[in-house]
């Protein structure tokens, strides 16, 4: 559990810089449970080649993105309940301290095999732009320089390099931050998600 001061400190940085990195966001136990889940998903062949674009214009292009993903469902994936607990905490605190109007979330696990990458992009689709905050949790124990797979954030004239080390959280504003996953030289594991806007089209219903 984190204190209000910690949440406020992270959200201040997110507001100011459009991104924030938090180390040791997952506890050892949450990390272990997440990796167990990941290993099982791999064994059961649940991970599928990721594509680009939303359903209407979905395409698979390995030259753009080389990861394999599995979309999570909270009701089904009960082994990850302690992960979903901290997502709920994150959402509750963003609502409380940042007055964000968040209506939902979507998460997947992702494996980038050796030699894969994801080209520079923004996390919004042409026909769907309700992703507000991107949430990344890295799962690579013993990651070291040379392993590759760093995330590069492009901001103003800067290139900020984030190493995908285990238990680290990265939050950024989905509509502001262009980013890229550099080629990884080892299998690279992560949990990726998006916190979604209140869809404008249902605004009148509530
Ligand atoms: O895994 C990462 O560091 C970033 C992944 C990403 O950019 C995405 O899935 O949209
Ligand atoms: Fe992305």
UniProtKB/TrEMBL annotation:
It comes from the Bacteria. Its cofactor is L-ascorbate. Residues 98-197 form the Fe2OG dioxygenase domain. InterPro entries: HIF_prolyl_hydroxylases, Oxoglu/Fe-dep_dioxygenase_dom, Pro_4_hyd_alph, Pro_4_hyd_alph_FE2OG_OXY. Gene3D superfamilies: q2cbj1_9rhob like domain (2.60.120.620). Keywords: Dioxygenase, Iron, Metal-binding, Oxidoreductase, Vitamin C. GO terms for molecular function: ferrous iron binding; L-ascorbic acid binding; peptidyl-proline dioxygenase activity. Signal peptide: none annotated. One of its GO terms (biological process) is cellular response to hypoxia. PANTHER family: EGL NINE HOMOLOG-RELATED, HIF PROLYL HYDROXYLASE, ISOFORM C. This is 2OG-Fe(II) oxygenase. The lineage of its organism: Bacteria, Pseudomonadati, Balneolota, Balneolia, Balneolales.
């Amino acid at each position: 559990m984190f204190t209000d001061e910690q949440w406020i400190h992270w959200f201040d940085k997110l507001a100011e810089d459009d991104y924030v990195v938090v180390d040791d966001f997952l506890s050892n136990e949450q990390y272990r449970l997440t990796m167990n889940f990941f290993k099982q998903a791999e064994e059961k062949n649940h991970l599928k080649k990721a594509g680009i674009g939303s359903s209407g214009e979905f395409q698979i292009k390995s030259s753009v993105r080389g990861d394999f993903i599995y979309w999570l469902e909270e009701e089904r994936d009960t082994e990850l309940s302690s992960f979903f607990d901290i997502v709920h905490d994150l959402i509750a605190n963003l609502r409380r301290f940042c007055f964000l109007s968040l209506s939902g979330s979507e998460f997947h696990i992702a494996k980038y095999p050796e030699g894969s990458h994801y080209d520079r992009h923004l996390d919004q689709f042409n026909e769907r732009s309700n992703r507000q905050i991107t949430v990344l949790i890295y799962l690579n124990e013993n990651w070291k320089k040379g392993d590759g797979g760093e995330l590069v954030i492009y901001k103003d004239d800067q290139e900020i390099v984030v190493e995908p080390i285990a238990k680290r959280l990265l939050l950024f504003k989905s509509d502001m931050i262009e980013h890229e996953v550099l080629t990884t030289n080892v299998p690279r594991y992560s949990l990726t998600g998006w916190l979604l806007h209140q869809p404008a089209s249902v605004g009148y219903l509530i």
